[in-house]
Write a structure and sequence with these properties.
With 426 residues, this protein is an alpha/beta fold. It has 17 helices and 10 strands. It has a 5-stranded parallel beta sheet with strand order 2-1-3-4-5, sandwiched between helices. The protein has a 5-stranded mixed beta sheet with strand order 7-8-6-9-10.
Length: 426
Amino acid sequence: MAAMTLYTVIVADDEDEIREAVCTMIPWEELGFCLVGNASNGLDALQLVEKYEPDLLLTDIRMPFISGIELARQVREVRPATNIAFLSGYDDFEYAKQAIQYNIISYMLKPLTMEGLASELRTIRQKIDAQFAMFREAAQRGGEQDQRAAVLMPLVLDDYADPDAEIQAEAMARQCGLLRDQEDHPSYTLMVSTLLSDSGGNCTDPSFVASVNTLASKYLRCVSFFASGKVVSVLLGNPLDFEEYLHILADEIPQMASRVLGKRCRIGISRAARSLTALHGAYREAMEALRQGDKSESGAQFISDLAPVKGGSLLCKRALDTLDQHYMNADLSLVSLSGMLDVSPNHLSACIKKCTGETFINILIRKRMDAARDLLATSSLKVQEISQRCGYTDQHYFSYCFKKYCGESPNAMRRRLGVERVGEPS
């Protein structure tokens, strides 16, 4: 009998006794899990997620510094393949509904016995098993899906540049259910996905079509088909849909392919097209992005990221320079920084990590802490003022980060350096 796959878990709870009990008293391996880390606050939990890329994050919904809701949102940005289970009080249920879109696999009410938690973990295990099985064993779907794919294939693979063909194409799209009605005028993005063997050869199977559709349908309307060793996906949505969800989907597919299938996945993504007759041009863009991407690594390549000024060390330098200018903005994130540079978050994250060996969040924290250290040593500003100048609205959060990064509290550093600040608590 094949050994059972152990799903990796990170536990986050600010109550030390509860966190320790969960970590030590739950028979993790017996339940099919492997505990890889634990955290007492949302910031540490997020960094552990980036480091260990767990299958499951088990977190309290009320956490210091970064709430469970905000943690779920940020985890989805960096690791959409991670499932999240909330542990929380009854009064937080309405609050927790905000996070349903963030891969919430379970919501458990405190107080919860260890037996109750173990029982729920068995259920979660079954749900993740089903997710993995669906992704691994998905077969091509028929019926309505095939009809829509049959309408789209010639539009994508052949050159239908004649504007007069748009009316006929839309009529066929409505007839097969691709478009809802005459008022339905979405934008379209082409995504081409391939699986690679250990040797780097294309090993994409037609069954991968349904795997891609399963994930894509969580975020966007999608129709995929198999052509010449590739899964070709037509994604439908409005510009805001693409802005919010496309980069997340482009991360989740390679993450799931790696975790479930043990294969690298490379994706090329076009710009948005406004008509069905523009799909062939979008397909050519997606193929060009696929060809130009780094063939040795998993991940997505957006055609919009391929301009010379948007790649390699030059982009990384621009990103670090922009971070230097905006680190004091409390809302600065990988997504907002990528918007300033007009590149996708996926591309920017990969570029920063490749050029510096660090993640965006670690670079941002270091920049803020270095700036704080300089202000503490050279100014008489209050710690609260310094925290705000360094991008922290919560002084306690700032002090926690500073002590973790510098090994001492802000006030302890000032006392050591002999810097006086009238009215500052000791």
